[in-house]
Automatic annotation (TrEMBL):
<feature type="region of interest" description="Disordered">
    <location>
        <begin position="126"/>
        <end position="167"/>
    </location>
</feature>
<feature type="domain" description="C2">
    <location>
        <begin position="72"/>
        <end position="365"/>
    </location>
</feature>
<keyword id="KW-0967">Endosome</keyword>
<feature type="compositionally biased region" description="Low complexity">
    <location>
        <begin position="133"/>
        <end position="144"/>
    </location>
</feature>
<keyword id="KW-0268">Exocytosis</keyword>
<dbReference type="InterPro" id="IPR014770">
    <property type="entry name" value="Munc13_1"/>
</dbReference>
<feature type="domain" description="C2">
    <location>
        <begin position="1100"/>
        <end position="1223"/>
    </location>
</feature>
<dbReference type="InterPro" id="IPR052095">
    <property type="entry name" value="UNC-13_domain"/>
</dbReference>
<keyword id="KW-0963">Cytoplasm</keyword>
<feature type="compositionally biased region" description="Polar residues">
    <location>
        <begin position="147"/>
        <end position="164"/>
    </location>
</feature>
<dbReference type="InterPro" id="IPR000008">
    <property type="entry name" value="C2_dom"/>
</dbReference>
<protein>
    <recommendedName>
        <fullName>BAI1-associated protein 3</fullName>
    </recommendedName>
</protein>
<comment type="similarity">
    <text>Belongs to the unc-13 family.</text>
</comment>
<dbReference type="InterPro" id="IPR014772">
    <property type="entry name" value="Munc13_dom-2"/>
</dbReference>
<feature type="domain" description="MHD2">
    <location>
        <begin position="971"/>
        <end position="1080"/>
    </location>
</feature>
<dbReference type="Pfam" id="PF00168">
    <property type="entry name" value="C2"/>
</dbReference>
<feature type="region of interest" description="Disordered">
    <location>
        <begin position="208"/>
        <end position="228"/>
    </location>
</feature>
Length: 1272
């Protein structure tokens, strides 16, 4: 009787009560199942394989007994029942797939191959000749079962006939001789006259799967004896119709009883594949086996040639009636085999059935001949596996009972394996023991359960056990993948309707359970790694189901799983929020309790969103392409907005923001506390901070959820504690100042970093700044304009505290005598280092305040053109406003005040829409710059004093450098100074902050520059150029030493104005007189060009009009006129003339100066004179080549007076420029107006250097001449 398809009912079992399977398997069903297991073990089938190695039946029985939890008496009773059952009928399944490399028998170079195959009984196997055994070749693709496909296969024997005739067919010799048995399914009528005589028959069949007939009915118990029908082929002779070719039946009395048609059971043939040497058949055959241990599968391949061949003979097997007809049939077969014009033999294969593993085998077999002398080529591809069936009178295709048994067996074995992990069943990997796998495998092949059905059953069993056994979802994911793979591989073997319904029910139950787990994700999947792994595999299972063909076939109308995941997440978030709201905010709570409850709820929502974003969202996005965070964020924001809006309106009514402070509207009934008082603003402030923290998640929300963020932004409580905040600022300023003073009084040293010393006062002071800024950041004031007075007060508080701290630290340095001569005291030096670090540390903290408090954004909003008219007459720190808060009434929101006064400067009254300035920006700038300048002053004084303490030692080394012998190289002369600096810096660097160290190095650099200047100034006129060469080299070495390849002071800091003056002075002193004169003229030429390049020409000394060009190795200079010459004679006029000369003199040695005629009593002389200078083009193109025009006033009795001078670079003269021009083009040359100049610098450095060179006549004359041209 087959089992019904109803769900298994939970009933207790008979065993020892250990197995949880008893919850849905009745005791009777458990007993039947255990008997089935014992029956399966007793009739174990097939050879062992790699996946299913050899197990003694006793071991399998012991495992089954332990897994089922039965006692010995129960086991003996069930074993007796299993022993009395009829043994199953073994079935060999053969699939002839293809062959290759066959021998060509036809004239066209091909063959028409077909296969004849049948079962050769073990009693005849010894007479099959001595043909060599072919060795099978393994396939690269897996066999029938995916397990055991790579094992070594034994070799098989081919068949050879005893006659030696090549056309004598081996098929004749392999006809099996079987016992005649009754089988109720196939209506065979065998009459037995004598019980002691067991009848036998010869059965041969032709190809085709439609003639699969089962074996006869087997006796229930006891051995069966058999006789043999011998079919003997006659030897080669003249009498081909000899009686020796007939079949001899032992047991003549049974011959007459064989009156029914003989079924075709044991010989089958494939179809013929024409004209090929590599045929492909893919045809399946089934054979009932009597003795697996001795029977052999025999297969021949023939070439189909004539109209009536072996194949035709076999096809007429169904026409044979009785043994006499069968004898005539084999006579025809033998004649066909002997005839040379019939089918040609292509090879054969013998495969012992006992060597076929239980997992089946799929191999290439080498074809063999009928004797050792035969030459056969090619191989054949076969797939073989064993199965069984029972004589129950039911259809062979109906194995639903076995499938249900497989499911129950899986459940029993799962329960047993999980019981070994009592404390943590989720750690079980899902792998059954080898004994359990062997039992399940044997039950499957004996029940003809296909591989696909086995995977379906496995999934159903594991999915059933998932909820109550807490299995890890990775186990289900692996099984699901295996099922999907098998479904794709065996798509040609569809499941029955019952099997598909069971699989659909399992899929649906698993999805429902998984979605319920997702709804409870906050309770089931914490942030621990193991739970995260469970969640990942749960999602992988759902996503795998969504794309499986099996799921779409069994559940065609099921919703999309991804959409169901989204719904589950949304429902789970809503359920969690509702439960948390009921837990945190009681319905009958007072105001303070409600505020505190809302704060706790907001913080829990924040924590849930944090987990959603950091943990869950990545898993859902990566596996299911589902934005978990966006779904949860949207749900939470909607529910918070809906829930908090009404509650916050009620809360605001208790905190009205009037000009005189908060009004007391209600009283907390129990203790008389004023619910609207400033003291109760603390919980409200915490709620506001919690809501602000929640709004930070809007940066991670999708753009379409911006509206929710705006709704959340409206949920603020700033109006409730605006006045409270003003009071807090007043108190905070006083406390901040007191904290700074206390920090200095309680100051102590502590090691913050290796070799770097701080004091606790600096850390406490900066911590106070950070706490104030963090308070404002958490407050997250919604509007920039209305936040201005509070931010200004915070900045004023911080800068005032910083200035107080700087004064206290500087006072302590003074008190300890650092600015006195007792500076070498080690304790004093150490304390100076620490205090210098303290000042620098606080200064660095001040630099970050504007950015932290968003000062730039605030002043832009306040100073902008769209700022409403505001009153700025009060500050939260200094007191109340002296005027109405809103001047023009343009602000509609209550409490929007721009407050200033006292410590805050007045921002020029009201700021209008069309009239605005940078008053707010300037107010902040003044506060911050005052603090920065204060610290800069203190730091410079301490660092400068520290450098002054080292001046004497550096001065001594600089003196040694300057007055070293000229023979001593500069690097050796500077070595003592560099060693001294190295010692000083090594002492400073480990004890100072980087910025403080840089500041001290800059102060030392200033001292070095001053001392070098002093050495250059002392008796400079008595020193020669080599002295200044050494000083200049030393200056460069000091610069490189302090720069330290970018690790020290920057080049910008090193090349300060003091350095530039020192470097210029030393460079000038070390230059030669000619070089100085050239430099002077180059400088004057630069001044001339600057005058003409400024656009607006101011000529207080007049203008000279000229024209200059170069032509044919001659420089032509035309002095045309002059205007506005300064009057130098008593009559208010002058007698001007112009001196023209080429500079520098060393470049034009053959060109002397030339002059024009004197023009009497005029300020606008017209000369119109031309001068020629014989020069070359190369001389004119020198960078320093220029013309000097000097306008003089002629005096008869006294020396001529200087009226002005002008210079012109020869590089700009036509004909000297890069493109020379001909003389004919010079007529169109423009005239040049040169502004006449005087030397404005009375202390020009070059003239001073030249004047100091008293031994140099050229220098003295040039300096004297130029001094006459200095503006008086």
């Amino acid at each position: 009787m087959r089992e019904d398809d109803q769900p298994l009912v939970a009933q207790p079992s008979e065993g020892d009560g250990r197995m949880d399977s008893s919850q849905f398997i009745s005791s009777k069903e458990m007993e039947q199942l255990y008997v089935e297991v014992l029956y399966t073990i007793r009739h174990k089938l097939g050879a062992h394989s790699a996946k299913y190695p050899h197990h003694f039946k006793e071991d399998l029985v012991h495992y089954a007994q332990t897994a089922f939890g039965v006692g010995q008496e129960y086991h003996r009773r069930c074993n007796a029942i299993a022993s009395e059952e009829k043994p199953p009928i073994v079935v060999l399944n053969v699939t002839v797939i293809e062959a290759e490399g066959l021998e060509a028998k036809d004239p066209n170079g091909f063959s028409d191959p077909y296969c004849m195959l049948g079962i050769q009984p073990g009693c005849c196997s010894g007479n099959r000749g001595s043909a060599e055994q072919p060795s099978p070749q393994q396939l690269t693709q897996p066999p029938l079962d995916t397990i055991g496909s790579n094992e070594e296969l034994p070799t098989t024997s081919s068949v050879s006939l005893s006659t030696g005739d090549q056309r004598r067919d081996s098929l004749v010799s392999m006809i099996p001789i079987e016992k005649m048995k009754k089988h109720s399914s196939f209506r065979l009528s065998f009459k037995r006259k004598d019980p002691s005589v067991v009848t036998s028959t010869v059965v041969v069949s032709a190809g085709g799967n439609s003639n699969q007939i089962g074996p006869a009915n087997r006796p229930s118990l006891g051995p069966a004896s058999s006789n043999t029908i011998s079919v003997v082929g006659s030897s080669v002779g003249n009498n081909s119709n000899s009686s020796s070719n007939s079949c001899i039946l032992h047991g003549r009395e049974q011959r007459d009883s064989l009156h029914a048609a003989l079924p075709a059971k044991f010989i089958r043939a494939t179809s013929v594949k024409g004209a090929t040497l590599n045929p492909k058949w893919n045809e399946k055959f089934r054979f009932d086996i009597d003795d697996v241990c001795s029977d052999t599968l025999h297969l021949d391949i023939w070439d189909h040639d004539d109209e009536y061949s072996v194949l035709d003979a076999v096809s007429k097997l169904n026409e044979v009636r009785g043994v006499k007809g069968l004898g005539r049939f084999f006579k025809q077969i033998a004649q066909s085999a002997r005839s040379g014009t019939q089918d040609d033999f292509l090879g054969c294969v013998n495969i012992p059935l006992q060597e076929i593993p239980s997992t089946g085998i799929e191999c290439w077999y080498k074809l063999g001949g009928r004797s050792q002398r035969s030459t056969i080529q090619g191989r054949i591809h076969l797939k073989l596996w064993l199965s069984t069936r029972e004589d129950l009178g039911t259809s062979e295709e109906d194995n639903w009972t076995e499938i249900k048994q497989q499911e129950k067996l899986h459940c029993v074995f799962i329960d047993f394996e999980v019981s070994r992990f009592k404390n943590s069943p989720s750690q079980w990997t899902g792998e059954l023991s080898q004994a359990a796998l062997t039992i399940l495998h044997q039950h499957a092949i004996q029940g003809d359960v296909t591989v696909l059905q086995s995977h379906v059953v496995r999934w159903i069993a594991y999915a059933r056990k998932l909820p109550d056994k807490s299995l890890h979802f990775s186990v289900l994911f692996r099984i699901l993948n295996d099922l999907d793979h098998q479904w794709s591989s065996f798509s040609t073997e569809p499941l029955s309707r019952e099997e598909e319904d069971a699989l659909a029910e399992s899929f649906t139950a698993f999805i429902d359970y998984s979605l319920s787990c997702l709804r409870k994700i906050r309770y089931l999947f914490s942030h621990r790694l193991s739970n995260s792994s469970k969640l990942e595999f749960l999602l992988k299972c759902l996503m795998q189901l969504d794309v499986m063909r099996a799921f779409r076939r069994c559940c065609p109308f099921h919703k999309e799983i991804r959409g169901e995941i989204v719904v589950a997440i949304r429902k789970g978030a809503a359920e969690w929020f509702t439960s948390e709201l009921q837990r945190c905010v009681p319905t009958d709570a007072n105001l303070v309790t409600v505020i505190n409850g809302l704060t706790v709820l907001t913080n829990r929502v924040y924590a849930d969103l944090t987990r959603s974003h950091q943990i869950y969202d990545d898993v859902f996005q990566r596996i299911g392409n589902v934005s978990y965070f966006n779904i949860v964020y949207k749900n939470h924001m909607k529910m918070i907005t809906q829930e908090f809006s009404s509650r916050l309106e009620s809360i605001r009514s208790h905190f009205p923001n009037g000009p005189n402070g908060p009004t007391i509207s209600t009283t907390d009934g129990g203790n008389g506390a004023e619910t609207g008082s400033a003291e109760n603003a603390g919980p409200l402030f915490e709620l506001n901070i919690a809501l602000q923290d929640l709004q930070k998640f809007q940066d991670h929300a999708p753009p379409e959820e911006i509206s929710l963020s705006h709704q959340m932004a409206a949920l603020n409580c700033h109006d409730c504690f605006r006045v409270v905040l003003e009071q807090w600022l007043i108190v905070a300023r006083s406390k901040a100042l007191n904290r700074v003073r206390s920090a200095v009084e309680l100051d102590s040293f502590t090691n913050v970093e290796p070799y770097l010393k701080h004091s606790t006062s600096a850390i406490d002071t900066t911590s106070c700044f950070y706490q104030v800024c963090d308070f404002w950041k958490q407050l997250a004031w919604p509007e920039l304009v209305s936040s201005y007075p509070f931010v200004y007060s915070l900045v004023e508080m911080i800068t005032a505290s910083a200035i107080v701290y700087a004064d206290l630290i500087f006072l302590r340095i003074q008190t300890h005598g650092f600015f006195t001569d007792d500076w070498k005291n080690t304790a004093v030096v150490e304390e100076v280092y620490v205090n210098l670090n303290n000042l620098q540390h606080v200064k660095n903290a001040l630099a970050s305040i504007p950015q932290t408090l968003r000062v730039t954004a605030i002043v832009s909003a306040v100073d902008g053109p769209n700022t409403a008219l505001l009153d700025v007459q009060r500050s939260p720190i200094s007191g109340r406003s002296r005027s109405p808060s809103v001047v023009s009434g343009t602000l509609t929101s209550p409490g929007y005040l721009m407050i200033a006064g006292g410590a805050m400067p007045n921002i020029s009254g009201c700021v209008g829409i069309n009239s605005y300035d940078n008053s707010a920006r300037q107010a902040f700038h003044n506060l911050l710059e005052t603090a920065r300048d204060h610290y800069e002053n203190k730091l410079l004084r301490v660092a400068g004093c520290l450098a002054e303490k080292m001046r004497s030692e550096m001065k001594k080394n600089i003196f040694h450098l300057a007055w070293s012998p000229d023979s001593l190289p500069a690097n050796e002369a500077a070595a003592p100074l560099l060693d001294c600096l190295d010692h000083i810096l090594l002492d400073l660097q480990p004890n100072l902050l980087p910025d403080a160290f840089q500041r001290c190095v800059a102060a030392i650099w200033d001292v070095l520059l001053v001392e070098l200047w002093a050495q250059a100034e002392v008796s400079s006129g008595d020193k020669f150029c080599k002295f200044y060469d050494r000083l200049h080299s030393a200056l460069q070495m000091l610069l490189n030493f302090l720069h330290a390849e970018g690790k020290g002071l920057s080049l910008e800091a090193l090349k300060c104005p003091t350095y530039q003056r020192v470097e210029e002075k030393i460079s000038l002193h070390k230059a030669k007189t000619e070089q100085l004169i050239d430099l002077y003229h180059i400088g004057r030429l630069g001044q001339q060009q600057q005058l003409h390049g400024s656009g607006t020409i101011d000529a207080p000394y007049g203008v000279l009009n000229i024209r200059v060009y170069f032509h044919h190795d001659s420089l032509s200079v035309e002095i045309l006129s002059a205007r506005d010459v300064i009057p130098l004679d008593p009559n208010g006029l002058s007698d001007p003339f112009v001196i023209v000369e080429l500079l520098p003199r060393r470049l034009f040695p053959n060109c002397g100066e030339q002059q024009t005629t004197v023009k009497r009593r005029t300020l606008h002389p017209v000369f119109d004179e031309c001068f020629e200078f014989p020069v070359t083009l190369e001389q004119c193109r020198q960078e320093t080549a220029m013309l000097l025009f000097t306008v003089m006033d002629y005096d008869v009795l006294t020396a001529n007076d200087f009226a002005g001078e002008a210079l012109l670079s020869l590089n700009t003269v036509p004909g000297v420029a890069a493109t020379p021009q001909g003389l004919d083009t010079f007529h169109g040359l423009k005239q040049i107006d040169l502004v006449l100049m005087h030397q404005p610098n009375k202390h020009h450095p070059i003239l001073s250097v030249l004047e100091s060179r008293v031994w140099d006549r050229t220098a003295q004359e040039f300096a004297k001449k130029q001094r006459e041209r200095v503006v008086s």
